[in-house]
């Protein structure tokens, strides 16, 4: 891991790093957990609300023998009540690791610049590395491999899509995204992913057409059309993204044993049709559970 004390982006990882994180998470999921971080404290510095991220980090740190402290937006006022650099330096005197969930990726970068302790990006507007790593853990668990598979992402080229693209290309998983014009993944992310894909013998592509994207897909993945902070755009996005809903007809175009994935929370009747979470191909709640196990592996990596 480049700069092993930090996980700000999937771009901080090598293929070996991702493989080791997944392998360690699987071992810990099977019960091989040593409470090695007794006396260690995780500071959860959140600007955005969360269910899975907060609970998975808190339980992960507890299972590893440590303690976590949740800091809400109202308590800290990150960048408003107090400078980001000052918050980072103060927390470095109290805690052993920070997991930051922020609106801006620049906030994560600034925290990392001033923190004297490891820092994990628990979500920013640019990336969601913990989610993508948990997703690959789930695919590995269900399919037995990552190499040679095809992952079709349907919807907005948001932070989850960017991290998934980078992670998939590191592991030899072909990635295709179907999204409306002007709602795709930024070119800077594609440049890195293409280099990864060339080294790992897979393909990374984009299309405007959802049905063609899912043809022969081993994994069909979607996420909300409107992320936190984009609420004023919600009505416009619903109209633009309507042809990109994942429903039984769209899933039917994928392989018969394809997995359906969603990072949650889901907007039923929007990006996924009613009842799709209960489809036999859905592994969404296994995916949510695996956030806990990958979080343990990430904490172990940065604290060790």
How would you describe what is shown here?
With 304 residues, the chain is of the alpha/beta class. It folds into two domains: 6-128 and 291-303, Aspartate/ornithine carbamoyltransferase (Rossmann fold); 131-287, Rossmann fold (3-Layer(aba) Sandwich). Helices cover 43% and strands 14% of the residues. The protein has helices spanning 15-29, 52-63, 73-76, 84-94, 105-114, 129-143, 159-170, 187-200, 210-214, 234-241, 248-251, 284-303, and strands at residues 6-7, 41-46, 67-71, 97-101, 119-123, 150-154, 174-178, 204-207, 219-222, 259-261. The strands form two sheets. It has a five-stranded parallel β-sheet, sandwiched between helices. The longest helix has 20 residues, at 284-303. It starts with 5 loop residues before the first strand and ends with a helix.
Kindly provide the radius of gyration, computed on alpha-carbon positions and rounded to a whole number of angstroms: 19 Å
SSE order: EHEHEHHEHEHEHEHEHEHHEH
Count of beta strands? 10
| Low-pLDDT segments, ≥5 res | none
Helix content: 40-55%
State which percent range the strand residues make up: 5-15%
CATH uppermost class of the largest domain:
Alpha Beta
Amino-to-carboxy terminus distance:
12 Å
Can you say what the CATH homologous superfamily of the largest domain is? Answer: Aspartate/ornithine carbamoyltransferase
The structural class is: alpha/beta
């Amino acid at each position: 891991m480049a700069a092993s004390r930090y996980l700000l982006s999937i771009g901080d990882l090598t293929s070996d790093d991702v493989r080791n994180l997944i392998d360690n998470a699987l071992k810990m999921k099977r019960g091989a957990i040593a409470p090695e971080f007794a006396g260690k404290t995780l500071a959860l510095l959140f600007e955005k609300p969360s269910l899975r991220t907060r609970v998975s980090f808190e339980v992960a740190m507890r299972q590893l023998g440590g303690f976590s402290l949740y800091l809400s937006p109202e308590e800290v006022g990150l960048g408003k009540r107090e400078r980001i650099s000052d918050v980072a330096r103060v927390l470095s005197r109290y805690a052993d690791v920070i997991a930051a969930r922020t609106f801006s990726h620049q906030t994560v970068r600034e925290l990392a610049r001033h923190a004297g302790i490891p820092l994990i990006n628990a979500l920013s507007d640019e990336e969601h590395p913990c989610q993508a790593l948990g997703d690959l853990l789930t695919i590995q668990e269900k399919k037995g491999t990552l190499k040679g598979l095809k992952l079709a992402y349907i919807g907005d080229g948001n932070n989850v899509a960017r991290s998934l693209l980078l992670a998939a290309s590191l592991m030899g998983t072909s990635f295709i995204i179907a999204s409306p014009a002007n709602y795709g993944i930024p070119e800077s992310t594609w440049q890195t992913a293409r280099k990864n894909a060339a080294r790992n013998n897979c393909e990374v592509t984009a299309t405007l057409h959802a049905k063609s994207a899912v043809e022969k897909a081993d994994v069909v993945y979607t996420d909300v059309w409107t992320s936190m902070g984009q609420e004023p755009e919600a009505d416009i996005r619903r109209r633009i993204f309507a042809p990109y809903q994942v429903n039984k007809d769209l899933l039917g175009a994928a392989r018969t044993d394809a997995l359906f994935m969603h990072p949650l929370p889901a907007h039923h009747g929007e990006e996924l049709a009613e009842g799709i979470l209960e489809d036999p191909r859905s592994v969404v709640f296994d995916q949510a559970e695996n956030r806990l196990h990958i979080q343990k592996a990430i904490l172990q990596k940065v604290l060790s």
